[in-house]
Amino acid sequence: PEDADRICQSLVITFTDEADGVYSGDGVRLEFENGWALIRPALDDPILTLRFQGRTAEDLADIVELVGEQLPAEMAAAVRTLV
């Protein structure tokens, strides 16, 4: 849980000036002109749930890549397989 909170806080700090909207609470939601990313701790497991949406497939790939680059290395590698 501490790692999940640390990762979410790091994303808030990193994207405060880059994203169109940054909302935190139970995780973090990053809103961009062309889509969004949601990263939050799972309720019953020690994992993070990541969700992404883009207006187009290219927008989606851009958001996944942009956010994925800010995650810890082992998570970033897993996220890159989504693109």
N→C terminal distance: 27 Å
- Poorly predicted runs of 5 or more residues: none
Task: Tell me the number of helical segments per DSSP (H or I, 4 or more residues long).
Answer: 3
User: H/E series, N to C?
Assistant: HEEEEHH
Oligomer status? single chain
Task: Give helix % range.
Answer: 40-55%
Q: What's the overall geometry? A: globular
Structural class: alpha+beta
Provide the spatial order of strands within the biggest beta sheet. Answer: 1-2-3-4
Mean pLDDT, nearest integer? Answer: 87
Strand count: 4
Approximately what portion of the residues adopt beta-strand conformation?
25-35%
What is the gyration radius calculated from CA atoms?
Answer: 12 Å
Main sheet summary: 4 strands, antiparallel
